[in-house]
């Protein structure tokens, strides 16, 4: 409009609008051609000169402050910009004074009106570009623009333009407006997020348009309420794709948006499912010049996601390890051994080739940095050497935490700051911290080791880096917090069988036994201690290999007592004397008494672990003598009479149902472990003479009828069969023990196999065995099949099973049809059409199918 007005009245040809923003744009560039000479021309020309003076002053911002996305200014009028925008280039003429901005403000309304839909697209483009450049002047300029209602809506409308310059200017203006806290909600309400999403979805966009659009989203994502709106399945893929863009500014803006979105926990799930973790982790693992901002934003986003334990696993799987930032003061206690020949991180000695040590440790440093690939050393050991050398060198020169994001996390308390390091550096850094004196640093490092030990690769890396030796030494630390964190780390490392051997060789059994004897320790610490002991002793996996020879005539030949004792305490050639003494310590009566106390008064989880360790001890004759001197029957009785088993008749609803199911599962595991222990104890004649077999038979029969998971009933049934051999013939039971086992363990197990097995052979074997049980006339067997929901899988089997399976299923269904109560269930399962097809096709079992049809009311 201004251009057309000037051209009409004064026949002036203005330069290109984009050129108007360059320093070369000046009054001399204009060609003034008056239409006619008259007395008013000089006045008009003076007016033109003044008009151009206003034009120039309009585009000169009076201030352009640099902001970052998280530099929040208090108050509604605060200004937050994602990244600094380039100010409009203006003439440096000295005659432009402080009144220029005031004069330029008078023409904001003119440009806002030019944004209207009734104007030419080129005029609208020039107007939005002018307003964008003007908005770079700061909050005062933006306030002047926002005085006019509808300005934001008109700007958002321009995002759908086909002109890249228009889209860039519109997105840039929205970026400036959204940098003000007061206007951020108004921008979102105008539909800017949806329009920007549509704009970014276009197949081809210039980097400038992407940058301005992303930065507008970056500013909007500062508002916690708007993050949920931005974090949707339409925008997230666009943001993630922009992380691979060639323009570093676009990358930084996309990373900034994702970092802000990660600040809200409610967004974590959708962000992770969109696949953001591998992309952000890649940005941290590669070093690209000029990428400090994107690395910072990627780190911040991943650290926020890593607060969730499940997402932390995904971050670690990408090769990044969360490492606590403990402060420079904590590293002052680091004392490198400058005058000693270096060893492997796990303590293995390296052959010394030079005659003397280097005074300043240069030879040791070079030895760590230059590992000969031709030497026969495992890759894990090489990585441990290189990582340790690098971290120790940084600690020596005091630069170990300079580049780990310390500044970016300054607002967090010292005990919460974390750095994300590549796994090799992270493992070495954590092991280095374990050698410091600071208690908080020790606790945090041990917890990080526990969190990072998610797979065999990480556990092996910690083992090779020498973490186990440091952790075991810290089990005797004065601080309870340190001991708890260290035990947690050792418990996670003990999952690996290779680490268990190193744990035992380093002498972990003695401090674990000491912890076990102190009943005042917390349940969490006791649980982890029992976990480590159970894995080292490994009663469920290694017993057969340690205490039995190979098969002889289809059976296992047991070792004699002396050989079993030797195997337990380590009197073999491959076990050192220290391990032998440590294992003998486990046979102490105080340890066994403490384990029985845990059976009596602890949670189901602790009961299960204690029963597993006692089961291992029952193999050893000397420990059996000790067990006989204590009241182990009372411990078993407590496990078999847990409260959750007594309350199985109670009505449970809602959330209580989930809690009850969890308690029932834990109780089932404890009962299964206690049943294994009781079965082992029954092999001892002394125990059989002492135990009340009738009492335990009643308890186990009741458990067999309970709702504990079916797989936990296997050992209960086995123990019942074992107990039945010691019971007298006139025991007052409703049903014999074998019948109880059949009804409540065998039949449910067979039906589960028919329902869930993917193998036709396994289904056939299960249905044939079930038919045999029912054909033998076991009391209530058909009722047990019906109550366990066996009718539907049996009907399905007569349609899809083998000939032998169909024959058995038809026989079972015929027996079930003798009870009229089962007729409705058989018909509902679709048996009638299936039976008719068998009869009409005259398959081999069509006569059985016909008899079953005649029994049904059809």
Indicate the structural class: mainly alpha
| Helix content range | 55-70%
Low-confidence stretches: 1-77, 86-103, 405-415, 541-574, 729-735
Quick one: CATH class of the domain at 102-328? Mainly Alpha
Tell me the name of the CATH homologous superfamily of the domain at 102-328: Leucine-rich Repeat Variant
The protein's oligomeric status is: single chain
Gross CATH architecture of the domain at 102-328: Alpha Horseshoe
**Terminus-to-terminus distance:** 88 Å
| Mean of pLDDT | 76
* Rg computed from alpha carbons, rounded to a whole number of angstroms: 39 Å
Could you tell me the CATH topology label of the domain at 102-328: Leucine-rich Repeat Variant
The global form is flat
Beta percentage is: under 5%
Main beta sheet: 2 strands, antiparallel
Number of discrete helical segments: 48
Number of strands: 4
Q: Kindly report the spatial arrangement of strands forming the biggest sheet.
A: 1-2
Outline of this structure?
This protein is an all-alpha fold and 858 residues long. It is built from 48 helices and 4 strands. Keywords: Repeat.
């Amino acid at each position: 409009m201004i251009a057309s007005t000037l051209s009409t009245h004064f026949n002036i040809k203005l330069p290109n609008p984009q050129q108007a923003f360059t320093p070369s744009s000046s009054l001399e560039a204009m060609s003034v051609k008056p239409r006619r000479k008259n007395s008013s021309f000089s006045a008009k020309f003076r007016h033109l000169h003044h008009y151009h003076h206003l034009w120039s002053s309009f585009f000169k911002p009076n201030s352009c402050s640099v902001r970052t996305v998280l530099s929040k200014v208090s108050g509604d009028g605060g200004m937050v910009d994602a990244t600094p925008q380039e100010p409009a280039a203006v003439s440096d003429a000295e005659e432009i004074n402080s009144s220029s901005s005031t004069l330029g403000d008078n023409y904001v309304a003119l440009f806002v009106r030019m944004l209207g839909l009734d104007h030419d697209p080129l005029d609208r483009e020039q107007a939005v570009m002018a307003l964008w450049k003007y908005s770079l002047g700061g909050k005062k300029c933006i306030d002047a623009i926002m005085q006019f209602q509808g300005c934001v809506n008109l700007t958002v409308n321009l995002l759908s333009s086909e002109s890249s310059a228009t889209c860039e200017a519109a997105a840039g203006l929205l970026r400036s407006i959204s940098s003000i806290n007061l206007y951020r909600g108004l921008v979102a309400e105008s539909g800017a997020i949806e329009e920007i999403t549509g704009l970014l979805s276009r197949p081809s966009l210039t980097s400038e348009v992407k940058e301005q659009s992303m930065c507008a989203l970056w500013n909007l994502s500062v508002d916690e309420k708007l993050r949920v709106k931005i974090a949707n399945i339409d925008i997230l893929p666009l943001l993630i794709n922009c992380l691979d863009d060639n323009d570093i500014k676009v990358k930084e803006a996309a990373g900034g948006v994702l970092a802000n979105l990660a600040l809200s926990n409610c967004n974590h799930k959708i962000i992770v499912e969109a696949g953001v973790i591998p992309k952000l982790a890649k940005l941290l693992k590669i070093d690209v010049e000029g990428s400090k901002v994107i690395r910072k934003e990627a780190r911040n986003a991943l650290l926020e996601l890593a607060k969730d334990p499940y997402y932390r696993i995904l971050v670690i799987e990408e090769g990044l390890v969360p490492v606590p930032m403990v402060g420079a003061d904590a590293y002052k206690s680091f004392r490198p051994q400058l005058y000693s020949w270096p060893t492997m991180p796990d303590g293995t000695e390296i052959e010394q080739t030079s005659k003397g040590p280097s005074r300043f440790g240069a030879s040791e440093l070079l030895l760590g940095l230059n590992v000969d690939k031709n030497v026969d050393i495992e890759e894990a050991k090489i990585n441990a050497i290189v990582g340790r050398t690098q971290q120790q060198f940084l600690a020596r020169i005091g630069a170990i935490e300079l580049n780990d994001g310390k500044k970016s996390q300054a607002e967090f308390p010292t005990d919460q700051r974390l750095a994300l390091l590549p796994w090799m550096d992270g493992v070495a850094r954590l092991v280095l911290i374990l050698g410091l004196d600071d208690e908080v640093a020790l606790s945090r490092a041990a917890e990080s080791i526990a969190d990072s030990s998610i797979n065999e690769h990480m556990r092996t890396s910690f083992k090779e880096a020498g973490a186990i030796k440091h952790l075991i030494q810290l089990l005797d630390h004065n601080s309870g917090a340190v001991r708890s964190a260290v035990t947690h780390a050792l418990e996670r490392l003990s999952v690996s069988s290779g680490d268990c051997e190193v744990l035992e060789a380093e002498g972990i059994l003695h401090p674990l036994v000491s912890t076990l004897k102190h009943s005042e320790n917390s349940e969490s610490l006791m649980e982890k201690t029992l976990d480590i002991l159970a894995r080292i002793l490994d009663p469920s996996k290694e017993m057969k290999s340690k205490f039995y020879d190979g098969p002889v005539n289809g059976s296992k030949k047991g070792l004699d007592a002396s050989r079993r004792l030797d195997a337990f305490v380590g009197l073999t050639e491959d076990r050192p004397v220290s391990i032998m003494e440590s294992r003998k310590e486990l046979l102490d009566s105080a340890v066994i008494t403490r384990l029985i106390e845990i059976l009596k008064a602890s949670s189901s989880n602790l009961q299960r672990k204690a029963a597993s360790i006692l089961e291992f001890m029952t193999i050893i004759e000397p420990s059996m003598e000790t067990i006989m001197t204590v009241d182990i029957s009372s411990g078993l009785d407590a496990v078999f009479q847990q409260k959750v088993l007594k309350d199985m008749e109670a009505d449970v609803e809602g959330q209580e149902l989930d809690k009850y199911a969890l308690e029932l599962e834990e109780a089932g595991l404890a009962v299964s472990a206690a049943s294994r222990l009781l079965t082992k104890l029954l092999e001892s004649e002394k125990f059989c003479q002492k135990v009340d077999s009738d009492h335990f038979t009643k308890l186990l029969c009741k458990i067999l009828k309970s709702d504990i998971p079916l797989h936990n009933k296997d050992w209960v049934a086995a123990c019942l069969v074992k107990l039945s051999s010691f019971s007298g013939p006139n025991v007052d039971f409703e049903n014999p023990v074998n019948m109880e086992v059949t009804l409540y363990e065998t039949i449910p197990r067979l039906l589960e196999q028919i329902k869930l097995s993917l193998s036709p052979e396994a289904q056939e074997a299960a249905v044939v065995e079930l038919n045999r049980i029912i054909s033998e006339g076991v009391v209530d067997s058909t009722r047990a099949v019906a109550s366990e929901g066996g009718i539907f899988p049996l009907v399905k089997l007569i349609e899809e099973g083998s000939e032998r399976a169909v024959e058995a299923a038809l026989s079972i269904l015929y027996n079930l049809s003798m009870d009229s109560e089962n007729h409705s269930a058989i018909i509902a399962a679709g048996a009638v059409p299936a039976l008719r097809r068998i009869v009409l096709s005259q398959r081999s079992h069509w006569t059985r199918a016909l008899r079953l049809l005649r029994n049904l009311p059809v």
